[in-house]
Design brief:
This protein is about 30% helix and about 15% strand. The chain has a single domain, classed as Rhodanese-like domain (Oxidized Rhodanese, domain 1, 3-Layer(aba) Sandwich), CATH 3.40.250.10. By secondary structure, the protein is an alpha/beta fold.
Length: about 120
């Protein structure tokens, strides 16, 4: 049986630390759908729903590391795997997703999606 290589993953605490402390902070890409994102999200996350991801993947800056998050870590793992298979080497899944993020007591935002949360910064 062939073994799949494990995906690069970090827990939410490490992800949040990287967002705060890295010299070139990663871009936090949230692949949940709009309704999920409105309910709760990590500050600074960019909404790129998995339902439109393939149409928007070209918007991701090639020079910036990516952290990918979803509700529980499954969809973000799929997107992380896709990006790695596509040649990206600087992509990391946030294990446990927003469920683990909230359980860790990390900061969150709620409510309407702002224009800055739907536009990938360059």
């Amino acid at each position: 049986m062939l073994r799949r290589p494990s995906l690069p993953s970090v827990d939410p605490i490490e992800a949040e630390r990287r967002l705060r402390e890295e010299p070139v902070p990663p871009l936090l890409v949230d692949v949940r759908e709009v309704g999920e994102f409105r309910t709760v999200r990590a500050p600074g996350a960019i909404l790129m729903p998995i339902s439109t991801f393939l149409m928007r993947v070209g918007e991701l800056p090639p020079e910036r590391p990516l952290l990918v998050i979803c509700h529980s870590g499954n969809r973000s793992a799929s997107v992380t795997g896709y990006l790695i298979q596509s040649g990206r080497t600087d992509v990391t899944n946030v294990a446990g997703g927003m469920l683990a993020w909230e359980r860790a007591g990390l900061p969150t935002r709620r409510g309407a999606v702002g224009p800055d949360e739907e536009t990938v910064p360059r």
